[in-house]
Amino acid sequence: MTLPQLTGLASLVALDHPELVAPPVAAALSRWPGAERIAVVEIDPEHADTAAMSAAYDLPMTAGANCVLVAGKREGEERVAACLVRADTRADVNHTVKRLLDVRKPSFLPLERAVAESGMEYGGITPVGLPAGWRLLVDARVPEMDLAIIGSGLRRSKLLVPGDLFGQAPGAEVVEGLAG
């Protein structure tokens, strides 16, 4: 098995380096079939945001995937979802996510709450290791990616995930048209 690589960065087997990922991410990786194919790379935390990383490491935006957290209510019940979309697209929160969550008005989870409840750092939030009860919506284009660069739960590293693994991620719902 060949581990995913990025030019100029040392790829390590993510399962073997829990110190490079947030604790909930390490726990989730240990339960994810195929996780031995996932690499972790250390980066400058100043380049954790997708656009900054793409510029600093000369990567196309199409190589990254972003995770946004969305919540809404219906009849007093809150519904939360993580939406994983290619970095060159945006989650269709006002139509597709609203319909899938069956809520009146979806909105992005406030930063402080996203960090506190996920156990991850801002700029490193990832769909791997999210709290139980949160849905994982994956745009259908993500599993088609050869390699998706996503957060590790920490700003100082990124996960390199073969795209096909997202179709098999625990709890993942692959959605056509999640992003535009």
TrEMBL record:
Which GO-annotated molecular functions does the record name? aminoacyl-tRNA deacylase activity
SUPFAM superfamilies registered for this protein in UniProt? YbaK/ProRS associated domain
- A Pfam family (short name) is tRNA_edit
Superkingdom, according to UniProt? Bacteria
Where in the numbering of this chain does the YbaK/aminoacyl-tRNA synthetase-associated domain appear? 45-163
Which CDD domains does this entry report, sorted A to Z? PA2301
Q: What is this protein called?
A: YbaK/aminoacyl-tRNA synthetase-associated domain-containing protein
Q: Whose protein is this, by species?
A: Nocardioides albidus
